[in-house]
Amino acid sequence: MNKALLAFLLLSPFAFSAPTAARVQLMTPSVEKDTAARQALYNRLVHDHPLAEAMPNSRVAVRIMTDRIMRSCCMPPELVIAGKVTNRTAHPLDYVRLRIAFENAIGGNIYAETIYNSKAASMADSPEVERMLNEKPHFTPLAPGTSDTFVFSIPLPLLPKFAKVRVYADGARR
């Protein structure tokens, strides 16, 4: 075989390939439903738990920034849900009490925890902790329009099988 022909064939593998065509699919309502179902399945596989939902509140905006299961070789896996709370009122709020509620498939509460925003974390201290630290619970008020953070960290062995997770801003005191 001619060396020039052989070099041409080796250097241009796509020169003799068949032409390809792109296929475009229009989004119909049934395709949109399938896409939403595939996305929900993907979220469940990737996050392997139902994602938390922030419940509306007229005084405080709750935004979830992190919702994932943290795994480590040294401790049991933990569900970590973190976010921001923002004061929507025209006056300062002393603290925001947040509640996370886990529900079963029929809507019944199966587990719940309560925490305070980070600037008021000492509000959750027990009397024993107060005695050891020799201080009373304190807080830094949230001015109108300002934000603070919160973090729920719950060991998975504590949680029964759940279908929904909701985060409520239960109490906001001024």
Query: How much helicity do the residues have?
Result: 10-25%
Provide the domain count: 1
Say how many strands there are: 7
String of helices and strands: HHEEEEEHEE
Reading off the top of the CATH hierarchy, the class is best stated as Mainly Beta
Distance between the termini: 91 Å
Keywords:
3 helices; four-stranded mixed β-sheet; alpha+beta; Immunoglobulin-like; 7 strands; 174 residues; three-stranded antiparallel β-sheet
Compose a concise summary of this entry.
The protein is α+β, with helices and mostly antiparallel strands and 174 residues long. The protein has helices at residues 3-11, 29-47, 127-133; strands spanning 52-54, 60-70, 78-87, 95-103, 109-116, 147-155, 164-173.
Walk me through this protein's architecture:
- The protein is α+β, with helices and mostly antiparallel strands.
- The chain has helices spanning 3-11, 29-47, 127-133, and strands at 52-54, 60-70, 78-87, 95-103, 109-116, 147-155, 164-173.
- Helix content is 20%, strand content 34%.
- The longest helix is centred in the N-terminal third of the chain and has 19 residues, at 29-47.
- The N and C termini lie far apart (91 Å).
Outline the secondary-structure elements:
Elements: H1 3-11, H2 29-47, E1 52-54, E2 60-70, E3 78-87, E4 95-103, E5 109-116, H3 127-133, E6 147-155, E7 164-173
Parallel strand pairs: 1-7
Antiparallel strand pairs: 2-3, 3-6, 4-5, 4-7
